[in-house]
């Protein structure tokens, strides 16, 4: 446990959304991945996120989640009060979720600095993470919109990248952001890694008023609507469906970076967004055939990969390499680690066929 004192007026904002379709049938719309223990630690991804931020934020935490998951979030986080878990009437992407939290904090704590971190990421090195957050906090106090850029471990094509420029005067650990770039091809990604670009993990630290004022420069009605809902919460149902469905990166970060108003702190810690079963297998300790769940339910001979025996039945695997077997009782998935990204296609097909009870 960290011995760090909480940062003054620092608030943890945790957007908790998404169904994690690449992790079906473990992750479902009714029980998305952030509500699950996917590392075998005994804590769900959401609980681990709150644990990680508690040394900096103390009790100051806002979770923004879907209405269907609000009660589950409150049950997993009994330390939070009802006003600390905000229920979205519908999914409107990250700008609406984080923007509403910013508008609420702008009124609740005029000196607030918010740090927005997704509920479903895995970060094992808490101390290194805390150091990066502290550096971002110091820059945010000076009016910057700050992101934490992850040091790439390989030329990934599934993430956007951040190109850093000159250091921010007086803040040696912080650099100006020259550009956010979209998900590249493998060849382009290799060039980015060699040139020192960083992965964009969607981590932002900023004063609430700064974030909303930046949004107002490109979409004044959007910013005004968020502030209006914060002032009159009973208008949420009326206003929410009319808000733009856009990510914070496109709505604020990219135009603000072009104007020289975004900074980046290097995140020198392990990070994973647990995007599919191959990523999940890499997170689990051991070699050969890895098991998430009750190991006595799995029998294997000359096999490797990942098995999740969540259906309570014995699963036997013989002579298969890099296999993925997920048994939840009402659904059985068999694929390979190489094809794990394609699981979302099965979810889409089930949805088209009207099998909503399975997704």
Q: Your description of this structure?
A:
The chain is an alpha/beta fold and 359 residues long. The chain has helices at 45-57, 70-76, 93-108, 126-141, 186-194, 208-218, 220-231, 236-239, 248-258, 277-283, 343-352; strands at 10-16, 61-66, 85-88, 113-116, 145-150, 160-168, 171-181, 198-206, 262-267, 289-291, 298-301, 305-309, 315-318, 323-327, 332-336. A 5-stranded mixed barrel has the order 5-8-6-7-9.
**How many individual domains?**
2
CATH architecture of the largest domain: Alpha-Beta Complex
Topology as H/E string? EHEHEHEHEEEHEHHHHEHEEEEEEH
Mean pLDDT: 96
The shape is globular
How is the biggest beta sheet arranged? 5 strands, mixed, barrel
Q: Approximately what portion of the residues adopt beta-strand conformation?
A: 15-25%
Low-confidence regions: none
Q: Quick one: how many beta strands?
A: 15
What is the CATH H-level superfamily of the largest domain?
A: Spore Coat Polysaccharide Biosynthesis Protein SpsA, Chain A
Distance between the termini: 37 Å
Using only CA atoms, what is the Rg?
A: 21 Å
Helix content: 25-40%
CATH class of the largest domain: Alpha Beta
Number of helices: 11
What class, by secondary structure content? alpha/beta
> Order of strands in the sheet with the most strands?
5-8-6-7-9
CATH topology of the largest domain: Spore Coat Polysaccharide Biosynthesis Protein SpsA, Chain A
